[in-house]
What does this fold into?
Amino acid sequence: MKVLVAVKRVVDPSVRVRAKQDGSGVDLANVKMSINPFDEVALEQAVRLKEAGVASEVVAVSIGVREAQETLRTALAMGADRAILLEVLEGQRDIEPLSVAKLLAALVGQEQPRLVLVGKQAIDNDMNATGQMLAGLLGWAQATYASKLELAGDSAVTTQEVDGGLRKVKLKLPAVVSVDLRLNEPRYASLMNIMKAKKKPLDVKSAADFGIDVAPRLTVLKTYEPAGRKAGTKLASVDDLIQKLKSGLEVS
Amino acid sequence: MAVLLIGAVADGQLVLDTTARAAAAARQLGEVTLLIMSPNADTAAAAAAEIDEVSNVLVCEHSSFGHDMAEASAAAIVSLAPNYSHVVGPTTSAAKSILPRVAALLDVMLISDVIRIHDQATFDRPVYAGSAIQTIKSRDLVKVLTVRTSAFQAAGRNGVAEIERVHAVEDPGLSEWIEDNIAVVDRPELTSARIVVSGGRGVGSQDSFSAITRLADSLGAAVGASRAAVDAGYAPNDWQIGQTGKIVAPDVYVAIGISGAIQHLAGMKDSKVIIAINKDEEAPIFQIADYGLVADLFEVVPELTERLNGSR
It folds into this structure.
């Protein structure tokens, strides 16, 4: 069974992102970029499925600018068999989840995987949409926030993190599963695997060749910093704390 | 402008506060029709009809709606969508799963986690774990959005909306519910509580997390946790507050043994008053807390609980 994993190149989670003073966006000059942490979990799961003999091939795919090849090399070093970049132009850097889902759907048509794994959200736009949109476009079953995933025959059984607790659902394959952080702990790629990854196939295709309209539906008018909070006062005792607790509840 | 609002239903009951907050947001966009999807919707529909700002309640009953199965729910919403300019849902796990699928089927872009509505097409939403806010304008004909409930005041409950029944479209039969493992707790809902008491990695173990829950109970508070505490198994997943967990904005937020990673702050920094207890004076949480107590939580939390219980 072929598994397709979509990975996105995002700002590293340790970077403190700031809005530019002029409101034109966030300042991303010279910041460290990484694979989206949720996508890393998705990829780890696919590799484990292959190691368990359930998946026959793991294909990592990214939609983005040329530099996203680095992200795909990371995916290959972690254990993906091959990688595909659907390259977009520099001006399409912030390609929207709807367009990403359409491109992925077209690629699914070519590659015919039985399972697509994605991270539940990208930590840059925090939109939480691509997996569900892809499932909708394909008419496939979907699971979101998966913290467990088991494949058996023609179905996948997932445990999902929902409001109030956990929910177990059986999906008919083919399906799209968006994964949560507690599904697994991604491995570090060994130096040997990083070297090997350089020789694994990485196809670069032009996203434009798919003939899909990727013009954004949302225009960003302004980007600004939220109102900040200031450090308050340090309390000396539990007595003080009780007093502040009570006044906090009265004022509001 | 006509808005189709997806009501939050759990276990056959309307999740009132969540739905009332989403209704107040939806009313800013137009006349609100509240959709109740449930296997047996009568109780929830009656409660929904009382929410101010709701003009009509649509009841759609199907066995698959009891567990928020996205494929069937999305199909039902898409079949109703042509009558509306906006499809709106609260930021529940169900709506966050269903509405992106709806948006794709309508060929429109989802707008998630809206915290402010400027006009019919212009919205504010946080990005980068709340480090920045974007004002975005949609050019789609139908706008599909989720609204962050903590950013909107709940509508009142003096309404008398009409209730109408609609038929569900056929369930595509792609997925099947097996079981829920949902804890029933006698505490306020995390996202609507006036007080939230939250524990982090500093709490140290699942056993010692009971110090946090006892303090919460003495205050009538909801219990939250940082991702570190959930990952370590000290607290269940649905208590997680932060960028990828729940977003809360209570009157008082008490952070205990939480260092204050940006991902956690994203979930609680709009609280009115923040109180932090941490033994590390340098913990980043103190940079945003209104009141901080540098102390060993194992000493002060039981003392605090005892004093609060004694003073009642």
Remarks:
- Chain A has a mean pLDDT of 95.
- Residues 2-251 of chain A form a domain with the Rossmann fold fold (CATH 3.40.50.620).
- Chain A touches chain B through 84 residues (CB under 8 Å).
